[in-house]
Amino acid sequence: GAGVSQSPSNKVTEKGKDVELRCDPISGHTALYWYRQSLGQGLEFLIYFQGNSAPDKSGLPSDRFSAERTGGSVSTLTIQRTQQEDSAVYLCASSLAPGLYNEQFFGPGTRLTVL
Amino acid sequence: AQRVTQPEKLLSVFKGAPVELKCNYSYSGSPELFWYVQYSRQRLQLLLRHISRESIKGFTADLNKGETSFHLKKPFAQEEDSAMYYCALSENTGFQKLVFGTGTRLLVSP
Question: Which of A35, A43, A87, B52 is the most exposed place for a label (fewest CB within 10 A)?
Fold first, then answer.
């Protein structure tokens, strides 16, 4: 079956604009994660969704970042008033359920460039 | 705070040579450790995890709690092993957000 998909694959925007990044997890996966990878940095956790529970937003770097997950499936990460330091690759991952034995499957990422 | 350190940005070896990709971590509890790999133009994927005690594609990793290390090893490198390798840890409780190192690029030359 299809893996995790993300759109767009590339996004170039101007400083101050809002952007939306989309993630389609693997069907049936209840856990969904967002990470980002800035140049020269490791992947950084942003937010986690599990089923209908309240998301864990502990990794969001500022209140300009928000995310939602509709119907327990598709997720959208929104960045308002983008800044140049937001330029990064944003990765989405999903797993069947939370737990050490449940592998996180990653999408191809969205490369965001803020000019 | 949780932290994963991969001291080498690039490791270059010849085909058939042994490989060791270093990973050190800091965590106050008992973490679970993983190695992820990203081949050229492919997505990030799990290579192996400590909890499974497995060997994948000839790679192994041993958790050394005394040295807080989880180095990735392979006795004889192959050209197809060339990729970006990331060490990661997660808490052993609750949901498993991953804390990643900055990665090591392995280049295996013929």
Answer: B52
- Summarised one tens digit per residue, pLDDT across range B32-75 is 899 999 999 999 999 998 877 778 899 999 889 889 999 999 99
Residues of chain B contacting residue A45, judged by C-beta atoms under 8 Å apart: 97-99
The tokens for B97 are 């957000």
| Rounded Cα–Cα distance for residues A109 and B67 (Å) | 34
Residue B94's pLDDT band (cuts 50, 70, 90): low
Dmax of chain A from CA atoms?
41
Query: Are B4 and B47 spatial neighbours (Cβ–Cβ below 8 Å)?
Result: no
Residue pairs between chains A and B whose CB atoms are closer than 8 Å: 57
Name every residue whose Cβ is closer than 8 Å to that of residue A46 and which is 6 or more positions away in sequence. Answer: A33, A34, A35, A36, A59, A60, A61, A65, A67, A77, A90
* Residue B40, SS3 per DSSP: coil
Options 3.30.1540.10, 2.60.40.10, 1.10.565.10, 2.30.29.30; CATH for A5-96 is 2.60.40.10
Domain locations in chain B as residue ranges:
3-109
- Cβ–Cβ below 8 Å for B97 and A48: yes
Q: Domain map of chain A by residue range?
A: 5-96
Most confident of A3-7, A40-44, A56-60, B61-65: A3-7
Q: What is the DSSP letter of A71?
A: G
